[in-house]
Design a protein that fits this description.
- The chain is an alpha+beta fold.
- The protein is 27% helix and 22% strand.
- It is built from five helices and seven strands.
- It has a seven-stranded antiparallel sheet.
């Protein structure tokens, strides 16, 4: 049963077989009350809409096939400090790169602009948005249709619904 679920998860593009390895999931919001958003996400609109979720301070990005110009953009905006999320990439044949960036309009606009000339995996594979040391958004396996966006229960329902409505996503309360 374990291997069937693991194979099914990998075949669907999920980097972490969440339901097969629940004890090893390196997410903070996943196993506590949170909002969950589902559906196809337009990556440019996602970055344009992120400010709707509130006052975030830091954007953490993780990827294994980051394009050279994208990495140069990230490095030019890198912020000093620790990389707070646990590593999301559990299996890789390459090098996992992690970036800590300010959640500023300049960075979000730059990401929205780069989505027009790059496939999403060339940008990153996993996204985390924090307010200081508090996880606000966790988006593992970002932009895959079956990958949920986890939003902290501390984000007001009106903000979550406005963000989801703008992107055409379904919202559910998990454990709230």
């Amino acid at each position: 049963m374990f291997f069937q679920r693991l194979i099914a998860a990998l075949q669907h593009g999920i980097g972490v077989a969440r339901d097969a390895m629940t004890a090893r999931v390196p997410l903070k919001l996943w196993n506590q009350p949170h909002w969950e958003l589902h559906g196809h996400v337009d990556s440019a609109r996602f970055f344009e809409s992120l400010p709707l979720l509130g006052e975030a301070t830091t954007l953490y990005l993780e990827g294994t096939v980051v394009a050279e110009d994208v990495e140069a953009f990230f490095r030019s905006h890198t912020e000093a400090g620790p990389y707070l999320p646990d590593t999301q990439t559990l299996w890789t044949t390459g090098v996992t790169k992690q970036f800590r960036l300010p959640a500023s309009p300049v960075v979000l606009e730059g990401l929205a602009r780069m989505t027009r000339s790059h496939a999403e995996p060339e940008l990153f594979e996993h996204l985390f948005l924090y307010r200081d040391s508090e996880a606000i958004v966790e988006y593992p396996d970002a932009f895959y249709d079956d990958s949920p966006i986890f939003v902290s229960r501390h984000v007001a329902e009106e903000r979550v619904r406005a963000f989801a409505d703008g992107l055409g996503l379904r919202v559910s309360r998990e454990g709230l």
